[in-house]
Design goal:
Layout (H helix, E strand, L loop, with lengths): L1 H8 L5 H4 L23 E8 L4 H13 L3 E2 L2 E9 L2 H10 L6 E3 L3 H14 L15 E2 L1 E10 H11 L4 H8 L19 E4 L5 H15 L7 H5 L1 H11 L2 E5 L2 H12 L6 E5 H6 L1 H8 L3 E4 L6 E2 L2 E4 L7 H15 L1 H7 L5 E2 L37 H15 L8
Helix pairs in contact: 4-5, 5-16, 11-13
Length: 403
């Protein structure tokens, strides 16, 4: 296969920022828990969250515990459970995991869980989706094409922009880079992406690829996903992946940046990962890894969902809400900037003067978009499942990085 040869050779998140995304779960709560000074007991809750938020979440929960926020006179004790979004969704569905709150990488996983749970439980949902407990986006990061500077210059000269149509055409070139003005020794144009059956950035990638093929922004259907024309286009792109990754952060760091353009020319990943690893990319490869924004984008919106079910009390749900409101406050939202996340609190901007803010002080070659729009709508759970099925039918056993 071509991949074998290559390996052998080598939620409204804020209307101003997002432009009216059609995601299923978004709201904002401003109510405050009562705060007596002396606790009379504890309310233990578990928060399961995607690993991309690890640094920000651990610092925020430490601050939450120091803040002495009480509910009904009791201290809220949060146990953190970091894990991959798709893994968490599957464990919650099986009943082996039932946290009071879950913050996956995107609304796609919430839609998957909600659809599957209602089908299996006579229409009842495990996600609280009404009133003050409605899921809300904590922070967000758009999907970007991460392209090494030398490669990006060639693509821009040939196609004028870096987006799915030009990338697709470049991936199927007979002689690779030589056909579009690049060096012949660069070989074929090489693509990088995580596995959509294990990683949210891979799932976002194939979802956006489908929308780009149909030139639509919302309403992706099962018939469209199963179309032979789309699946041929889909295979052109997915078949050009050198090695798939399992986790977005480790894949970008241990594969794409470590091996460089000899193995990966173009990679789909999150904006926050590219911005926070720019120095490492430059040190290892001697050139910048530039982010380019798809014309139609999709975001990793990190929703915070409060769950319901056996063992989750009303008090635990309200404690989870108090935690959610704390994470949405200005101080914690500003700290999220340090991890490259865009805040959802309208009082915090990516241009805020904060030491270590990766949105500031980047090379002039890195053009950061102030607003991310238009946005593709998150499909329903049945469509998401079909996208994963079509990918798995073709690439379940494809070469995957151990990173």
């Amino acid at each position: 296969s071509r991949r074998g040869l290559l390996i052998g050779g080598a939620v409204v998140v804020g209307a101003a920022a997002l432009g009216g995304a059609g995601f299923l779960f978004f709201s904002r709560s401003t109510s405050k828990p009562s705060s007596p000074t002396t606790p009379t007991g504890t309310i233990p809750i578990t928060l399961t969250y995607s690993t991309e938020k690890e640094d920000w979440m651990r610092a925020s929960i430490a601050a939450f515990h120091r803040s002495n926020i009480l509910l009904n006179g009791k201290a809220i004790q949060v146990t953190l459970d970091p894990r991959g979004s798709i893994d968490a969704q599957q464990r919650i569905m099986s009943g082996s995991l039932l946290p009071a709150a879950w913050s996956p990488a995107s609304a796609l996983e919430l839609n998957q869980l909600s659809t599957a749970w209602r089908q299996a439980h006579s229409g009842q949902d495990i996600i609280v989706s009404s009133g003050d407990l409605l899921p809300v986006s904590l922070v967000f990061s758009p999907l970007v094409f991460a392209v090494w500077k030398e490669r990006a210059q060639v693509l821009l000269r040939k196609y004028g922009s870096i987006d799915w149509s030009g990338i697709h055409d470049a991936l199927v070139l007979k002689n690779g880079w030589a056909d579009i003005g690049g060096h012949a020794d660069w070989g074929q144009v090489k693509f990088g992406q995580t596995r959509p059956d294990q990683s949210n950035s891979g799932l976002l990638s194939i979802t956006l690829l489908a929308y780009a093929f149909y030139k639509e922004q919302r309403g992706l259907t099962l018939d469209q996903v199963r179309s032979s024309a789309f699946l041929a286009y889909f295979s052109d792109v997915e078949g050009a992946v050198t090695q798939f990754g399992r986790s977005s952060g480790t894949y970008l760091e241990n594969e794409v940046i470590l091996k460089g353009p000899a193995a990966y020319d173009i990679t789909t990943t999150y904006e926050n990962l590219v911005l926070t690893r720019e120095r490492e990319a430059m040190q290892r490869q001697g050139q910048l890894l530039l982010p380019f924004y798809p014309g139609l984008n999709i975001v990793s919106d990190h929703p915070f969902a409060i769950l319901q079910g056996q063992g989750i009390t009303t008090e635990a749900q309200m404690a989870a809400k108090a935690l959610r409101d704390f994470l949405l406050a200005e101080q914690q939202q500003r700290q999220a900037l340090l991890s490259g996340f865009r805040p959802t609190n309208p009082n915090v901007a990516i241009t805020d003067k904060l030491s270590g803010n990766p949105f500031l002080g980047q090379s002039p070659d890195i053009q950061i978009k102030a607003q991310i729009q238009p946005l593709a709508q998150a499909p329903g759970g049945d469509v998401i499942n079909e996208l994963i099925k079509q990918w798995s039918d073709r690439y379940r056993d494809a070469s995957t990085s151990p990173s």
